[in-house]
Design brief:
Mean pLDDT: 94
Shape: globular
Strand order of the largest sheet: 1-12-11-10-9-8-6-2
Structural class: alpha/beta
Strand content: 5-15%
Length: 760
């Protein structure tokens, strides 16, 4: 019969229990046993919730204390040498977060999601062995609770393809035979434990593959096939496309395909993948809207008619890691809006209803289908979604609205005269530490325990204090610290029409970092200014240049649960017009610099290169639309973090920001290699301090990174800044690191050789 299956469940807990346990452990307030106990409780609750919902194929080993790719790295014994001598959680968290003497491993986005993974480091001399058998332990743990699970593994080819080579000339795929030996040993141990199926995730099958990668996939599954347990090969985040023949021709026992992003691939899959198990990803694992079950049932019935009910499973499109846990907690939302939502627990119910209807007909799940049909009809007709004024304004946008008055060289002269900054000007990305005191005050204000007037006075004190600290440190361009903001996207969404917010809709971004993405349910506009009051207040406290801080349209789009009833490009344009209004108002308020962060521009890039031009066209247009209403003398900054920019530098240049700051410290300035081939025309701030690690970067390290940057970037175009905002760091490490940053810039200014090399 058609089974209800799941590929993965959120690991953070309904109330972010994992976040709290991790941070208590890192602070020394809890020991390893307490952390392990929290993990065991969360796993037990997850398995029980899936069993009680009616899921028949329940995953195990989808839980992680930090990241599933890091788990795989640790399992393979692929621990970089700088962490030698550490073991257990000490080694594990050191790889993710670094130590005082050993920088963390690089971190980047998991395909086109806002989830971050820890990048494996690959060297020619590395050896692999089964350093731990956590997948077996998790399987046995669930079995002891009476739940038979399907263990989940990151695929060996995806793990290698996503790694970073640290030995010149090394082909990462040359390491595949040794990696496969470990996987084969692990599969044997799972079989001995009683596992009949294992899910192996190979998301790279949804992107362009080189011939070598395609050969590696064939090699991997020819090697692993035919051994117990049976293998379900899971693909997601898009269609198989030109990898269809490859995937369907592999000697695996089952195949999972994403029919949310690529429903059109079903016909070809059905015609080519016969006589094996087919898992249908019919429920959106990456968005929060209730599914159109009637439409999904049509696809499920098509598969059942072709394969029979015993060889079909119904599942989410991907792991539910990317959605919040439970929509029933959002009691503050009105009935109409809440009826449109499905979080992880509700998606389990959708999967079960769809599987039941695929087996027995729609009437067997009538209540679920009627509710889904009503939600679809309500969204289509609701007046709160469709705003004719917003649509008319978006339709009227012209090319002239997306251009600055003059090219950057002309603007740079006016900006230099206005700002009067030294060479290698120093600044930060925007936010400063959000201390417990600030978070408690925000919570007290929201609960009515602190008056608005008292809260305002408190924030003014913190803002002034932050400005004085920056002045004392010697920073050239200041920010106000953003103490009034809860999140760089949520803060803006709360002030824009067409957005709604959860109270418990947390999603893991990396480690203990959780975000609560807004929900874009309707047409977007800006009812009133959002940041001007605080920007004006902050600018009045200092004689130094103050940046106005905004989040860009593509980042707001990418880091929200966006509506699925119109093209993403259209929603981006609407958000850009709202930000454009704010940019104009900030300039009118006297702000000489306005930063519009587009941290997510690269992560929104489609997985297939053939789809890049269309995306980059509308993404760049959205930024230019937001940033272009200002005069030549107003300097526009943008910030991007943790992304490989080399292959889209022309598009980044086309954004025409006067200054761009990017992450480069964790990658040791490797991102700047592309500047030897591409003459980036504007100014750039290559980050010299990895703020995602608790270690304090020293002055010598920063100077070394600046000298590396100076090989490619002229002196009059370099800014000196951290990699990202400082919200998650503490004041002691911030002040020490920024002291080193300012000194590093001063040392570079005093170095004739360094300055000469950058000016050549």
């Amino acid at each position: 019969m058609v089974k209800a299956a799941n590929l993965g469940f959120p690991r953070i807990g309904t109330r972010r229990e994992l976040k709290k346990a991790l941070e208590a452990y890192w602070k020394g307030e809890a020991d390893a046993a307490a952390l392990e106990a929290t993990g065991a409780t969360l796993r037990a609750e997850s398995w029980a919730a899936q069993r009680d919902a009616g899921i028949k194929r329940i995953p195990s080993n989808d839980f992680s204390f930090y990241d599933q790719v890091l788990d795989t790295t640790a399992m393979l014994g692929a621990i970089p040498g700088r962490f030698a001598g550490l073991g257990g959680f000490d080694a594990y968290f050191a790889m993710a977060r670094g130590t005082d003497t050993a920088p963390a491993m690089e971190m980047t986005k998991w395909f086109d999601t806002n989830y971050h993974y820890i990048v494996p480091e690959l060297t020619a001399d590395m050896t692999f062995h089964l350093a731990n058998d956590l997948p077996v332990q998790r399987f046995n743990e669930a079995k002891a609770q009476g739940i038979h699970t399907r263990p989940v593994l990151v695929g060996p080819v995806s793990w290698l393809a996503l790694g970073k080579v640290k030995t010149d000339g090394l082909d990462p795929l040359s390491l595949l035979p040794d990696v496969l030996a470990v996987y084969a040993e692990l599969l044997g141990k799972l079989a001995e434990a009683g596992s009949d199926w294992v899910q192996i995730d190979e998301p790279i099958l949804a992107r362009d593959l080189s011939e070598a990668e395609a050969r590696a996939v064939r090699t991997a599954y020819s090697t692993l096939a035919g051994k117990a347990p049976e293998i379900l090969l899971a693909t997601y985040f898009g269609g198989l496309g030109d990898n269809l023949d490859l995937a369907t021709g592999l000697p695996v026992d089952g195949l999972h395909v994403d029919l949310v992003r690529a429903p059109d691939q079903l016909d070809d899959v059905l015609s080519q993948f016969g006589d094996r198990l087919l898992s249908l990803g019919l429920i959106d694992g990456r968005n929060i809207w209730r599914a159109d079950l009637t439409r999904a049932l049509g696809l499920a019935r098509q598969a059942v008619d072709a394969f029979g009910p015993d060889r079909v499973e119904v599942a989410p499109s991907c792991s539910l890691l990317h959605v919040p846990v439970d929509a029933t907690l959002e009691t503050h939302l009105d009935d109409e809006l809440r009826s449109w939502l499905a979080f992880a627990r509700q998606k389990l119910d959708e999967v079960v209803a769809l599987a039941r209807a695929a087996r027995k007909g729609r009437e067997a799940a009538r209540a679920a289908f009627d509710a889904a049909d009503a939600a679809v009809a309500s969204r289509a007709a609701s007046a709160r979604i469709h705003d004719p004024t917003v649509k008319a304004r978006a339709d009227s946008v012209s090319d002239a609205d997306m251009r600055r008055s003059s090219p950057h060289p002309v603007r740079a002269v006016e900006q230099s005269a206005r700002l009067d900054l030294p060479a290698l000007p120093t600044t930060t990305i925007g936010s400063f530490p959000q201390t417990a005191e600030i978070r408690n005050a925000r919570a007290a204000n929201r609960k009515g325990e602190m008056s608005d007037a008292d809260y305002r006075a408190f924030l003014e004190e913190r803002t002034i204090e932050c400005i004085r600290r920056q002045e004392a440190l010697g920073l050239d361009v200041l920010v106000h610290g953003e103490f009034e903001r809860n999140d760089m996207v949520e803060y803006f969404g709360e002030q824009l029409s067409g957005f709604a917010f959860t109270k418990n809709g947390w999603v893991q971004s990396y480690g203990s970092r959780c975000v609560k993405p807004p929900m874009v349910y309707g047409d977007v506009s800006r009812p009133s200014p959002m940041t001007v009051d605080w920007a004006r207040f902050a600018a009045a406290q200092t004689d130094r240049p103050m940046k106005g801080m905004l989040t860009g349209p593509v980042t707001i789009l990418q880091w929200s649960f966006v509506r699925d009833d119109q093209p993403r490009a259209e929603t981006a344009k609407q958000i850009a017009l709202a930000i454009r209004n704010e940019v104009a108002d900030l300039e009118a308020a006297g702000l000489p610099i306005i930063q519009i962060d587009e941290a997510a521009l690269r992560e929104g890039l489609p997985l297939r290169r053939s789809d890049w031009p269309a995306y980059l066209d509308w993404a760049v247009a959205a930024f230019r639309l937001a940033s272009s209403p200002v005069s030549d003398a107003t300097q526009i900054h943008t910030h991007m973090c943790y992304s490989e920019f080399n292959d889209i530098l022309p598009a980044i240049a086309a954004m025409d920001a006067d200054v761009i700051s990017i992450e480069t410290s964790r990658s040791d300035m490797e991102l700047l290699d592309a500047f030897c081939d591409f003459d980036y025309p504007n100014q750039i701030g290559p980050g010299v301090w990895d703020i995602h690690s608790p270690r304090v970067a020293d002055e010598t390290e920063m100077v070394r990174l600046l000298k590396a940057a100076a090989e490619w970037i002229p002196a009059d175009r370099i800014w000196v800044n951290p990699d990202c905002g400082l919200k998650t760091r503490g004041w002691p490490e911030v002040e020490r690191s920024l002291t080193h940053l300012v000194r590093a810039a001063a040392q570079m200014r005093q170095s004739p050789n360094a300055m000469a090399s950058t000016s050549s």
